[in-house]
């Protein structure tokens, strides 16, 4: 499905607007600001994960895909938001986390008990090598083994993100059916579509083959990331991944004109994006994590756009300059003390691109990265990352000035 350019406003629910003064943003807070979003002229909003979660990864560690995290709201609040947004001509999309769950999820609690229970194969389990080490050399996104030992099963389980977020086994038909049933529940609540997180990580190589080594130049910056030492052939972007996306597309199409986006990370991303978007039977567009969000100047951004345009069908990109995992754009790109003029230029640049555009909350105000004292930081990803990177904690509002950038 080819769509004209649309602009979606990416809402990190916890920090957007607090309606009840408990210090946490919520669904009612978004509803209260729909007049502003309507004035801004966005076509839709994308909600960060609102599912029930122990919040060790702020909603990306899901314990129930069918329930809303209480401090963020409830189903009446969601209905009010959806109905009000639709009256204003604004779509409501959700970030969909289905590659993994929290290790507190009832499915995983049952799966880890033994190798014969009904959900024993709902996650990716594997025996140790003869010497007790993990079954292969796959790395998680934080640069350590993607496998964690669990004594209850006497096996390792796969986790591509944090070790408390085990990967679901999408090779199991029952897992696909269960996840799709939950997705359908949100469609029945009037949700207009989804952005699927880690969309190219749903399936893995069933033979669990180790990735081959990749030679890196001695001075390469990639040598700081252990994953870069491997050709990630067997742990991500597997060819049969598209079949799961097609099932989700078929389901969404049964509920009308729904938007289906994906967010992915891959060393060679453009062929993956093209395969997921070009035939119109899976995603409408895909957002590349290592996209403009990681560029530090216009030259790098221009090179990236040129490569994308030569490899992917026109209009299939989902462009953004920053997100909740990345330091705010003005802080990364401005060489002159985070000037409002730089913020205006960056927004103009984003709005000139073809495809679906994602505006992270506050970019239209010229917000920069907040300085967060180490003792006040809460985001696990930020804490585990390099010094000076605040993760999601640094993306809370800190304004350059009072000037709105809408023209």
Characterise the protein shown here:
- It is a single chain.
- The chain has 407 residues and is an alpha/beta fold.
- It has one domain (6-101, 172-395): TIM Barrel.
- It has 12 helices and 13 strands.
- It has helices at residues 13-16, 27-31, 34-40, 75-87, 106-111, 173-188, 241-253, 269-277, 298-311, 329-333, 340-351, 380-384; strands at 6-11, 44-47, 51-52, 64-68, 91-96, 125-126, 147-150, 155-158, 193-196, 259-264, 285-288, 318-320, 356-360.
- The strands form 3 sheets. Strands 11-10-9-5-2-1-13-12 form an 8-stranded parallel sheet.
- Strand 10, helix 8 (269-277) and strand 11 form a beta-alpha-beta unit.
- The protein is globular and about 60 Å long.
- It starts with 5 loop residues before the first strand and ends in a 23-residue tail after the last helix.
Biggest sheet layout:
8 strands, parallel
Percent of residues in helical segments?
A: 25-40%
Low-confidence segments, given as residue ranges, are 397-407
CATH H-level superfamily: Glycosidases
Strand content: 5-15%
- Count of distinct strands: 13
Strand order of the largest sheet: 11-10-9-5-2-1-13-12
Report the average pLDDT across residues.
87
Give me the secondary-structure category. Answer: alpha/beta
Q: What is the C-alpha radius of gyration, as a whole number of Å?
A: 21 Å
Distance, first to last CA: 31 Å
Domain count: the total is 1
Q: Count up the helices.
A: 12
CATH topology, what is it called? TIM Barrel
Order of helices and strands: EHHHEEEHEHEEEHEHEHEHEHHEH
Query: Any idea of the CATH class?
Result: Alpha Beta
Shape: globular
User: What is the CATH architecture annotation?
Assistant: Alpha-Beta Barrel
